[in-house]
Amino acid sequence: MSRAYSLERAALLKILLHAAKYPTGSVNGSLAPMLETALVQVEAYAQLQGLQVLGYYHANERLNDAELGPVARRIADRIQQRTPPACAVLVDNEKLRLFCRGEQVDVLSLFLREGSRGWSRATANNAGKLAIRGGGLAPDAFLASHGKGVHEQLCDFDDHLNDIRKDWTNKKLALAAS
User: Fold this and answer.
1) Out of 57, 58, 61, 165, which could bridge 26 as a Cys pair, Cβ 3.0 to 4.6 Å?
2) How far apart are CA 75 and CA 50, in angstroms?
3) H-state helical runs in 22-169
4) Architecture of domain 3-162 in CATH?
5) pLDDT in tens, 145-177
């Protein structure tokens, strides 16, 4: 069974800026600290927007760590229980380093749940594919946003829990995703 997932360029830019905001720590989408509370809020927001939560993104804290770790797998499991075709997306920090040097590389790795085998990296064999709508994100768009400090303005769910005036949906965040 082929499973294809796609992201908007603006979503990819948010993921990369979120990882850039915490360069020495792991980043867990918007759902890490208070998983149930966050998941309920995210699902309610998605429903109001006519959307559905279909996955989870994660960035590891170590540059050479390209695996979906135990915490990330548990969070992805929780989302997959609620939405069976769910996926997990991992920021590949080594490729992000190349991307920041101006190389056009795929910085995200798609992980799919394979029954009792758990989460594994998507390959041609398990027919998983992740596409970026609109043709991907140019390194210069990320670097321009990063250079303007946009990553420091990005608010995640942790920020929102610490100060409820902070908007975890980042509606007002100016993203130059072109």
Assistant:
1) 61
2) 23
3) 35-48, 70-82, 93-100, 139-147, 150-153, 157-162
4) 3-Layer(aba) Sandwich (3.40)
5) 889 999 999 888 888 888 999 998 888 776 644
